[in-house]
Design brief:
The structure is a homotetramer of 205-residue chains. In chain A, helix 1 crosses helix 5. In chain A, a hairpin with a 2-residue loop joins strand 3 and strand 4. The longest helix of chain A is centred in the C-terminal third of the chain and has 24 residues. In chain A, strands 1, 2, 3, 4, 5 and 6 form a six-stranded mixed sheet that branches. Chain A has 205 residues and is α/β, with parallel strands linked by helices. Chain A is built from five helices and six strands, in the order E-H-E-H-E-E-H-E-H-E-H. Chains in contact: A-B, A-C, A-D, B-C, B-D, C-D. At the A-B interface, helix 4 and helix 5 of A face helix 4 and helix 5 of B.
Chain lengths: 205, 205, 205, 205
Amino acid sequence: MKAVILNCTLKPSPHPSNTEALAEHVLTELTAQGVQCELIRVVDHAIPTGVATYEGGGDEWSRIHKKLLEAEILVIASPTWLGHPSSIAQKVLERMDAMISEKTESGLPVAFNKVAGVVCTGNEDGAHHVISEIAGGLIDIGYTIPGQAWTYWNKGPGPGKSFLETDYRHGWSITTAKTAASVLVAVAIALKAAPIPKEAYHADA
Amino acid sequence: MKAVILNCTLKPSPHPSNTEALAEHVLTELTAQGVQCELIRVVDHAIPTGVATYEGGGDEWSRIHKKLLEAEILVIASPTWLGHPSSIAQKVLERMDAMISEKTESGLPVAFNKVAGVVCTGNEDGAHHVISEIAGGLIDIGYTIPGQAWTYWNKGPGPGKSFLETDYRHGWSITTAKTAASVLVAVAIALKAAPIPKEAYHADA
Amino acid sequence: MKAVILNCTLKPSPHPSNTEALAEHVLTELTAQGVQCELIRVVDHAIPTGVATYEGGGDEWSRIHKKLLEAEILVIASPTWLGHPSSIAQKVLERMDAMISEKTESGLPVAFNKVAGVVCTGNEDGAHHVISEIAGGLIDIGYTIPGQAWTYWNKGPGPGKSFLETDYRHGWSITTAKTAASVLVAVAIALKAAPIPKEAYHADA
Amino acid sequence: MKAVILNCTLKPSPHPSNTEALAEHVLTELTAQGVQCELIRVVDHAIPTGVATYEGGGDEWSRIHKKLLEAEILVIASPTWLGHPSSIAQKVLERMDAMISEKTESGLPVAFNKVAGVVCTGNEDGAHHVISEIAGGLIDIGYTIPGQAWTYWNKGPGPGKSFLETDYRHGWSITTAKTAASVLVAVAIALKAAPIPKEAYHADA
């Protein structure tokens, strides 16, 4: 089983990423459960905005798109800016918009029978909304979101320290990350054992 | 297999409900696939606001709560007011908040291994947000949301006719309702065949 | 100058309300600046769901509606449940929906030339989203929202203590409450000195 | 009086932009009322992601930032993707995040005494949410949002034609655009006549 974790931090490598630091706890648990994981820092790649799978020129999205098709599990990890998912997370969703129309050989949207979860960090409030926004987009695209397939860390109220600058309540976020990884694997296994059949999809004539 | 459909219209019976009219298309498809359905118009019942499963006095929520525990499938159907889920839909989520702490015999949150979907109507814009808000709440509670387990109808831009006042694009909403019902059944079957195991849940010490 | 503060806690009096405790800091500053304030705990009043100004029977909303028309300033104070505004806050917005069509003698929506702000508390993450949702609804209705006309308190990540159970970072929330009160008064004064003229409103033919 | 309109379409020039087509109706009315307007298609400029006013290298944001400081009025115009503001709109908000800490000579956040509005288009549902998200961010930054300072166009339910491909209900969107422009001007005038004073801002010690 394969998982792709898209780190949607605004900061290119080698800047430390708080979001990556928390996402790695999900990755560690996925790996412990036998999943082959790849973590991609999206901002390190040349990905123009757009809503097609290939936007021309040196567009590197199509390589990531191929990995998404091969993986049963997707995790989108985003910082919180102005209480919203990052512009990189939204750019990823926009590029994934094309997947709504892309179909498997049996005619299902390509994300059917795949599962997805969300990781969110921020030095201020906003995580539940970031999770809802990203999950909402992924559900539109066709991903199944297992219950509680998310974790987050922030530090309310008002501006304050980032995840890597303090140990404040890391325990809760890490425990929650383990549950997120576990339900992603469990529901991915269930959908492999008994997939959504092609008859489930009704296309508008 | 059982499904509960909670119609969160603001209008008590016997007022016609646009939301119910669209929800019935999901119900019809669920029934056609062998699911035993119950549609409840929440506003017809004496349900105080609160976050416990029983809020005392003549509180009728606990009867609905019992039905939720017995059903594998939940559909929340809501109108759109000011671009948001109705106050009744939010009251339902608040009452369901207690389910985050309620556990099965094996120690899982009671909503684990259950699936949920959303139906939304409105005479104006707002459906995707209503769906994200409700789905986000249900994911917190532990429900799994299958990809595209929703349908909606509205008529943008600006105020206009309601679902029952026009035939405008009903076809798309009904086709989408069939997909929603089908993926709910398919993922419920998958989770019955291969349930999320008790080891998946990690509680904060 | 008059202000109405609607406390949208789920808990009827005399239960202590965390939301009220923070809202009182806004009220204190408004009073210090000469504003005549009234704080109303909405759940203590018999207010049915609906979208008309009077829903019949013993509906007590119309009394509150009258106070809103007399006040230059409105503050909606809400707890956070499942990351959303409370069902009481949404019920208030739904009842205020009628104000979109209600016009002053000069033909402006009745909320034009009034200002509004938001107070939010929660034992978990969600404040910025609660503020955006409520502000978004109030802007639709016609209220002007001054920059930073809000304050909040919560304690992330994960569930934890409520506002009244700890002193953690109260200072930030109270300072922010003072700014919220001050900008509400300042913009209300500006709109009194130079009101939006009737020519500003263009009605759809 | 000056206005900046930021078109946050994903499509670089010379591609036609539906969002620009609707934003131009706001621009026309602003111009008719004597406001000097500049419309900027953000994606045409080299603007990296980030949260500082200058991110180094050939970053063109600082030129736009300077225009924002000189303008009394800001309009953010965004398409709807997955029901959300575009990634370009979110990138703009992230770059504007620095303005929360930037102060005028008298010590107020630089966006105090400025007003902002929102324009949204989409071939599918989502406008009210896009408006709330963008308005919420702008309020955090310090902009005042006049009541009904927005317009939108979309065509629900389901995917369909874009603004420039049909005349369906353009009238409502254009009338609403005129109100948006008019209230922006009116509240900008009010804040010029009676500005928020420096005493209004209380900084966390």
